[in-house]
Write a structure and sequence with these properties.
Number of domains: 1
Largest sheet: 9 strands, mixed
Oligomer: single chain
Structural class: alpha/beta
Helix content: 25-40%
CATH topology: Rossmann fold
Radius of gyration: 18 Å
Distance between the termini: 35 Å
CATH class: Alpha Beta
């Protein structure tokens, strides 16, 4: 399985504060944005580069730039929205699509209710954004949908993942890289990650 656990001290420090039940919505939103920026730095580490010539104030030199790679962000509504701005700070030219998927209360099965994605998604490396990878159902549904309409290069960025969620995704989509800052072992009967951080959407937007 292609799973990268991001252990940078800044990420781990901020994840610890994010988990704390006493962290309020404003600080929670700020932390999600900051962590997303740091994680995107790692998730884009292998973008292809090409050489160019640059003229500095003192002379000319060889330099490297990203070789025209098109990128796209696809937050899973609604919690994934909290990750978008942090990543756009690093890659402001990325297009942003949206996927609305919720987990049905009794069956825990994903239900898609909204989709708006870039028309040229087949030409882009798409990063699916979902703070919590719990059962894996929503992320698998998102990957299925994106592949069905032509997406080819896809990665998943989540703040906290469950072991089961990782296993489910890699069983069905073994070629999808997963970037996460923590892996928790337990899911409760409601499909929440334990200890996790609670409902990311509720904590982001101050709802219950």
């Amino acid at each position: 399985m292609s799973v990268e656990l991001i252990t940078h001290p800044l990420v781990q420090h901020k994840i610890s504060i994010l988990r704390d039940k006493n962290t309020g919505p404003k600080d929670f939103r700020d932390l999600v944005e900051e962590i997303s920026t740091l994680m995107a730095y790692e998730a884009t580490r292998n973008l292809p580069l090409e050489k160019i010539r640059v003229e500095t104030p003192l002379g000319e030199c060889s330099a490297k730039v990203i070789s025209g790679k098109k990128l796209g962000l696809v937050p899973i509504l609604r919690a994934g929205l909290g990750m978008v701005n942090g990543i756009l700070k690093l890659i402001p030219a990325a297009k942003v699509g949206h996927l609305g998927i919720y987990r049905e209360h009794d069956t825990l099965k994903p239900v898609e209710y909204y989709a708006k994605l870039p028309e040229d998604l087949s030409e882009r490396h798409l990063f699916i954004l979902d703070p919590m990878l719990a059962t894996g159902g929503s992320s698998i549904a998102a990957i299925d949908y994106i592949k069905k309409i032509g997406g080819k290069e896809i990665s998943l960025i989540c703040l906290i993942a469950s072991r089961k969620g990782i296993e489910e995704i890699t069983k069905i989509h073994p070629n999808i890289p997963i970037f996460t800052a923590a892996v928790d072992e337990v899911l409760n009967k409601k499909g929440y990650i334990v200890p996790g951080l609670g409902d990311a959407g509720d904590r982001l937007f101050g709802t219950q």
